């Protein structure tokens, strides 16, 4: 087996040797590795094979060398022969070279100089060429620096754009250009920052100058309105032309770009009166410049958003009023000036720029401002208690609305607000006139007006429409029936109408609307303010019966003068009173109510006075016999009533209505007084604290009631029919007659009959009084003789008491 493998191994070694001989030495490694991977000891056999191959090659080399040796020897021999000639030639060449080098040394130097000059020339040409490319870049960059220094930022941005797109790309390989290119974005940011800083300064500037700009615009509007009003009056026009305002004091129209232009070129009469324009007051160049810069930089939207945001903030600041704004008109004027200035600037920016602010944005700002303005005015006007200040506020609101309306802002809500301010104005007027009326009433002497001469009479008649044929026929001196307060009240009502009319001026309302407003406000004055003052006056404790009678006379004349007030309003407004929707004055009801209240107060005061006299009564209820004459307090009371009812003769009787009215008041007062006196005397008899009454006291009380009846029958006030007034004491009279006559059998027998003699005597009243007299008999007063002399009569009293009690019990059941 081993012997069979030997030939194969030899053949493999041959192949490996051929591969080693034919391949590159770098690839021998894998071949040699395969020798060691074969059978054990294969490498020894390979080494042996390799040695054999080497020896074979050595023999071949030796054979070849032996074959060429003679030719080699011949060649060496010939070479040795040439050696001497070669050395000689070498010497000649070396000498020639030396001499050539020495001869060409100067040429070489000049050649090198020429070469160096040519290189310098080429470098210079290249440098000039490159410098020609770089110089424009440097010039543009220098120009950029100058523009930045002079704050010509928009031009600087244009220069940057040229640098980036045209100049720098030509020499972009140079370092300085790369530095320039890197600096340009930084410069753009610096320009943005600087322009934004200028914009902030601009915003601060317009915030400071808004007051002045607004004042100028409002003054322009006032001048325009005055001019229109003058022209309208001269032309007989009654309409109002909507103004278009500028800020230079002249008429103008809008140009296509929205800026204002003069229609006239007249010179100002006085240079000091020249009205500055918005451009004179505010430099708008920063906002234009910043807008252009941000537009060029492609960041216009950011700028627009920032500008609008800042203006909204400024709008909120402008719309914030001072806490004490309502105290003076200057506070309101400053507030309106700032708002007008703000929106005048916005209107200018709207028309002078393209899209920086839009109409929608200004409308949004105006709507926000309008809501805030209305809320502020509604709040602060409510604090005003001076009608002059409210009127000034109204005038400011009107010119404020007219000014902004000239710039295209809707102001209808402001005119709606004026109706609320009008109500506030009317309230302040009412408060003011309430004080005026109170002062008039406090200073009035409540006596007829004395007139000494015809001139004095004319003065009074000129202030108050008084006409009385009988008084006019009287000779001087004479007296007018009303007191001094009547013409004063009438004049003050007219003054109120004038004051109320002032608010209606410049509101662009029709005559019918003004007439309606005047009548409504006058009605409020009459029905609320004057009525309240009259009611308070009537209730005052120091107002006596005489004053109350004079108040009735005064209200009567004021009531008659109401139709003259209606004519007065008609003459002012030129609105016919027959118009369907014309409001009527309610003065008639006001004065009627006041007169009724005065009448009621007369009745009340009479009763109070009667109570005061009653409190002076000092009856000796256990007296044995009467004094034979009426009590002193009652006589004083009757004398007081007589003198009091004499006052009612002064009530107006110049016509049948007033005569019947005065008679009715006097009769009602007299009847009320008698009834109250009768009731008070009855209560005195039946007072629960009064325990005992003697027959003597009854007799004395009877004398007093008789005086009352005599007073009633003496007709203290004319107009009563028969014994109507005496019927006020009928209850007392029947009760006293019952006890004086001691007619119990008739009373008990006829009780409940319509024709009973003692029909007005109530069983409970008779029982109460009888109980008081019964108690007296127990103490040996009036009934002591009965107990001694006639026991049957005592039993009769007890029987009457029982029967009365049964009647009372029957009534209660």
Automatic annotation (TrEMBL):
GO terms for biological process, alphabetical: Golgi to plasma membrane transport; intracellular protein transport; vesicle tethering involved in exocytosis
Domain of life: Eukaryota
Domain Exocyst complex subunit EXOC6/Sec15 C-terminal: 414-772
Keywords linked to the UniProt accession: Exocytosis, Transport
Gene Ontology terms: cellular component: exocyst; plasma membrane
Positions of the Exocyst complex component EXOC6/Sec15 N-terminal domain: 49-218
Family: Belongs to the SEC15 family.
Family annotation (PANTHER family): EXOCYST COMPLEX COMPONENT 6 (PTHR12702:SF2), SEC15 (PTHR12702)
Function: Component of the exocyst complex involved in the docking of exocytic vesicles with fusion sites on the plasma membrane.
Record protein name field: Exocyst complex component
Species this chain originates from: Oryzias sinensis
């Amino acid at each position: 087996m081993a012997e069979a493998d030997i030939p194969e191994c030899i053949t493999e070694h041959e192949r490996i040797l051929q591969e080693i001989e034919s391949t590159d030495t770098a690839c021998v490694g894998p071949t040699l590795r395969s020798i060691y991977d074969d059978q054990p000891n294969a490498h020894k056999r390979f080494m042996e094979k390799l040695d054999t191959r080497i020896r074979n090659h050595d023999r071949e080399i030796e054979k070849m060398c032996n074959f060429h040796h003679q030719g080699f020897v011949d060649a060496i021999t010939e070479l040795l022969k040439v050696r001497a000639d070669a050395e000689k030639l070498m010497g000649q060449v070396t000498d020639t070279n030396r001499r050539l080098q020495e001869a060409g040394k100067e040429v070489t130097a000049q050649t090198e100089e020429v070469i160096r000059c040519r290189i310098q020339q080429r470098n210079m040409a290249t440098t000039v060429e490159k410098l020609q490319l770089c110089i424009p870049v440097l010039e543009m960059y220098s120009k950029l620096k100058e523009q930045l220094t002079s704050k010509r930022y928009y031009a600087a941005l244009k220069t940057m754009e040229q640098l980036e797109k045209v100049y720098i790309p030509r020499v972009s390989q140079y370092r300085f250009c790369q530095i320039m290119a890197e600096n340009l974005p930084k410069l753009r940011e610096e320009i943005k920052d600087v322009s934004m800083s200028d914009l902030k300064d601009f915003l601060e500037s317009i915030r400071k100058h808004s007051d002045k700009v607004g004042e100028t615009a409002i003054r322009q509007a006032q001048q325009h309105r005055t001019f229109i009003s003058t022209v309208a009056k001269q032309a007989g026009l009654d309409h109002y032309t909507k103004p278009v305002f500028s800020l230079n004091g002249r008429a103008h129209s809008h140009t296509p770009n929205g800026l204002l232009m003069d229609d006239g070129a007249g010179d100002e009469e006085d240079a000091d009166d020249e009205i500055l324009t918005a451009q004179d007051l505010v430099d708008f160049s920063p906002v234009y410049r910043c807008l252009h810069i941000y537009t060029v930089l492609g960041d216009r939207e950011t700028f627009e958003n920032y500008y609008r945001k800042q203006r909204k903030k400024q709008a909120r600041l402008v719309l914030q009023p001072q806490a004490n704004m309502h105290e003076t008109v200057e506070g309101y004027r400053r507030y309106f000036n700032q708002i007008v200035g703000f929106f005048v600037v916005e209107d200018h920016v709207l028309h002078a720029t393209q899209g920086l602010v839009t109409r929608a944005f200004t409308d949004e700002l105006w709507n926000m401002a309008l809501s805030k303005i209305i809320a502020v005015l509604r709040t602060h006007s409510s604090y005003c208690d001076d009608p002059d200040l409210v009127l000034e506020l109204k005038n400011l609101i009107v010119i404020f609305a007219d000014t902004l309306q000239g710039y295209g802002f809707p102001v209808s809500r402001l005119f709606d607000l004026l109706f609320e301010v009008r109500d506030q104005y009317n309230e302040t007027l009412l408060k003011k006139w309430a004080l005026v009326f109170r002062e008039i009433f406090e200073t009035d002497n409540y006596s007829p007006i004395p007139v000494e001469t015809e001139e004095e009479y004319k003065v009074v008649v000129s202030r108050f429409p008084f006409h009385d044929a009988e008084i006019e026929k009287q000779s001087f001196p004479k007296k007018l029936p009303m007191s001094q307060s009547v013409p004063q009240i009438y004049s003050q009502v007219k003054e109120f109408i004038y004051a109320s009319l002032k608010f209606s001026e410049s509101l662009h309302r029709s005559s019918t609307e003004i007439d309606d407003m005047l009548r409504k406000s006058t009605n409020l004055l009459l029905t609320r303010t004057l009525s309240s003052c009259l009611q308070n006056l009537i209730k005052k404790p120091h107002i006596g019966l005489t004053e109350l009678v004079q108040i009735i006379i005064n209200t009567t004349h004021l009531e008659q003068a109401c139709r003259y007030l209606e004519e007065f309003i008609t003459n002012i407004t030129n609105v016919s009173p027959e118009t369907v929707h014309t409001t009527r004055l309610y003065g008639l009801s006001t004065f009627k109510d006041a007169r009724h209240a005065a009448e009621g107060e007369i009745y009340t005061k009479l009763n109070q006075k009667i109570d005061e006299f009653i409190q002076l009564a000092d009856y000796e209820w256990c007296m044995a016999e009467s004094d034979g004459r009426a009590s002193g307090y009652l006589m004083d009371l009757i004398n007081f009533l007589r003198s009091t009812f004499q006052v009612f003769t002064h009530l107006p009787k110049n016509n049948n209505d007033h005569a019947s009215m005065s008679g009715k008041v006097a009769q009602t007062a007299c009847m009320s007084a008698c009834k109250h006196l009768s009731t008070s005397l009855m209560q005195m008899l039946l007072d629960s604290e009064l325990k005992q009454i003697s027959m003597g006291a009854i007799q004395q009380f009877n004398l007093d009631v008789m005086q009352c009846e005599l007073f009633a029958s003496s007709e203290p006030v004319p107009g009563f029919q028969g014994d109507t007034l005496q019927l006020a004491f009928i209850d007392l009279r029947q009760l006293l007659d019952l006890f004086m006559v001691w007619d119990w059998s008739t009373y008990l027998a006829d009780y409940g009959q319509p024709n009973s003699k003692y029909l007005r005597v109530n069983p409970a009243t008779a029982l109460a009084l009888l109980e008081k007299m019964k108690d007296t008999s127990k103490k040996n007063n009036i009934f002591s003789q009965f107990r001694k002399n006639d026991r049957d009569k005592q039993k009769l009293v007890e029987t009457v008491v029982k029967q009365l009690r049964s009647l009372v019990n029957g009534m209660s059941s």
